[in-house]
Structure formats: structure tokens, C-alpha cells
Amino acid sequence: SMQIGMLRQKLGSSGIIRLKDVARHIDNLKDLQLQEDVWCYDRYPKQSSSAKVMIKSHHNNKEHECVLWSVNHYLGLNRHPKVIKAAQDAIAVYGTGSGTSAMSGGFCELHKKIEEKVAQLFHKEAGIIFPTGYTANVGAISSLCAGRNSLILIDREVHASILDGCKFSGAKYLPFKHNSVDDLRSKINKYKELYDQIFVIIESVYSMSGDIAPLREIADLKQSNNFFLYVDEAHSFGIYGKNGGGLCLEMGITDSVDMLMTTLSKAAASVGGVVAGNKELCSLIQVSANAYIFQCCVTPSSAATVIEALDIIEKEPIHRETLHDNNRYFREKLLKLNFDLGESISPIVPIYIRSQTIMQNMEKELYERGIFSVSVTYPGVKFNEVRFRFIVSAAHTRQHIDYTCEVLSELGKKYGLIE
Ligand code: PMP
């Protein structure tokens, strides 16, 4: 992320890298790669733990064992023996790959089972599976919102896949202030006479801030205003609600939500994405979303992984309990140290640094001390909002958390973030 941040700084502050700008800076880019202190790579866990990993420094070629805070394996199920066995068994039956798109023959009974299961967990009638969460949003939103006379209102902090779905739809879209029901209400009032239909797209848990949407207030707003509500539950599916059915379920607002979406790459320990709603909406997406029609589907082994993971989420509540315990424990320690965690409450724990220079120095020192997290840099966020993002997992132990807090406390004092 640091490298992309620097590249973006060189290319300009828009936050969007345009191809023509890249072409213009091609020589600089070469320089950038040589000059950039590419200090580490290959940081995905290979050992038996989802929370510890050996990371080799490109800089001095040394290996450091790090506590890992950068992956979304919230429940640590990517290492659950039953999940691994389910994937292996499916490979023995189906082989590797998926061959083609769902429409043209890549779809098998495992995919069907996921669509039904996720819809059931979300308390919706039907579901449609996509190869990733990203393309689920792109495919579903571009289909549902297509039309000249629709307006899409999106929270300012929604994921890039939602933004791309809006762009592909051809409809007009506008952001409203993050989590501001007042701004949303005033935009609805301002525009409702001008458009045939208004779509409101939000996330239940926001991926960079770890805060949650005012779901009940937005559901209430629907009582007096007719709009279509789409909620991305990527960071809450499997974690909140009965059997992991998500935050809308936990808040009791499922009936007010027209379409729910989740990725299968986080709590569900695989890859893929599902959107769920009534049968008519799902049929519409199935026949009109290019991302569904023209893209290969999830491999059978990845599908088998999801089915097993969802079964474990239902039958072994310990993983969810451990995640929430870890989140509470880590968060309390950090707050006691006086770190700035913004409005976050979910297992996404941002630590606001608010200075790019301090963050870059600190990131390196954290790594050298055996802690790996991800820095969220400018222009992904504003300069004064740069932060580390620590993702809590059920796989973290108390020792991992204690050690991380110890080092954070020391470095926080060194860099004047806390007293
Ligand atoms: N929606 C949100 C809110 C996300 O955070 C992400 C992934 N980070 C996605 C969608 C896309 O999911 P995937 O990475 O599984 O394609």
C-alpha cells in the first residue's frame, strides 16, 4: 500500500490512477520501483497459523516472524482441518478450475447450495453467486441500477467495487456524508421528484474505518421515502447475527433491505461473492449482469470450502466468540493507552496516526519488531486521516495481542502519539 501511495503521490492527488498518466510517467515509474524501499513481500501465512507468518525483507534478505494483522480471515477458518479437507475432497471429485462461467456450464450443485445457504442465512428468498465480492457488487449494481432516470446515493466511504458498479450502470450517482442520515435525507428530498427511482447503497461495516452504518435510522427513513436499499455485508457476514447472517439481521432490519451482498473471502475463508434478495431481482441479475454471464465461476473446491465454513460457523460458535473476545480485549488495551481508534467498533481496528511520515517510520519499526499490519495512506484517505488498519482474527492469541500492544505503546510514545 505504501508503494501505491507513493506512486499516487507522484501521479497526482486525484486518488485515481489514469492510464494516460501512467504512460506519461513511465520513466519515473521505473525510477520509483528502483528507488522505493521495497522492504518486504510474500506476507501471506503459510505455516499452520493464520495469525503468525515469516516475512522476508527484500531490503536485507532477513526473515522476521511477524504477528499478522493484515488479512481478513476473521474466524481463522482458512486453517480449520475440516475446511481444508472439504477443499481437498472437492478437488478429488471435480479437479481444479471451474472451466467456464456459471451460465455456460461452470455451475454445479455446490454453487447452488451456496446460493441457497447464503440466502437462507440472510433471510432472503434467493441468491446469486459471483466469482468474487468485487464482481458481485459490480455485476449486481450495474444491472439493478441501469437506466437513465435512476439516481444512486452512496455513502462516501463505500468500497471501490460499489463505485465501479455505479459507473457501469450508467445511472447518475452521488455520495452523501459518511454515516450521515441527515445528509442522506436531504439529498433524497432534493432529488426524489427528479428521478424515477432512487437507490441507496451502504455497507453495514466500513472496511477502512471499522465503524458501522446507522442501519435502523436508514431503515426508518425508508418508511417515509420510497427508495431501494442495498447493503454490502462483506465485513459482517459470518461475524454478526444469528448463525453469522450479518448485521442487518442482528439489527432486525432485514425486511427493509431490498438486496444484501457479501463476499466469501473473509469470514467464509474462500473466494466468491453472493447477492441475495427476492427471486425476481435475482433473475434480473442472472440474465443481465455481464460479471455473471461472461466470467468464470467460483471453482468447486472454493465452493466446497464455503459450504464447510458456513456449517462450522453454525455448529461451532467458539470461533465467533473468540473473535469478539479478541476484539474487545485488543480495543480496550489500545483505548487505555490512549490511541485514537476513531468510531470503530468492529474487528477492523484503525489506529489513526494522522502523519504520513510518522506512519512510514513506524510501519518499518513495527515490522522489525515482528508486527505486520497495513497502512492506509494518502490519497486513499486524507493526509490527516492516515492510519494503520489492524484486522482482528479468532486465530490471534492473547500473547499476540499483548505483545502487539506492548510494542505499539513503546512506539506510540516514541513518536508522540500517546503520552
Ligand atoms: N465490499 C467490501 C466492503 C470489501 O471490503 C471488499 C473487499 N475488501 C469487497 C466488497 C470485495 O470483495 P472481494 O475482495 O472478496 O472481491
Automatic annotation (TrEMBL):
GO molecular function, one term: glycine C-acetyltransferase activity
EC class name: transferase
Domain Aminotransferase class I/classII large: 65-408
Top-level taxon of origin: Bacteria
KW Acyltransferase (keyword) present: yes
EC number: 2.3.1.29
Keywords: Acyltransferase, Transferase
Gene3D superfamilies for this protein: Aspartate Aminotransferase, domain 1, Type I PLP-dependent aspartate aminotransferase-like (Major domain)
Cofactor(s) this protein requires: pyridoxal 5'-phosphate
Name the UniProt record assigns to this protein: Glycine C-acetyltransferase
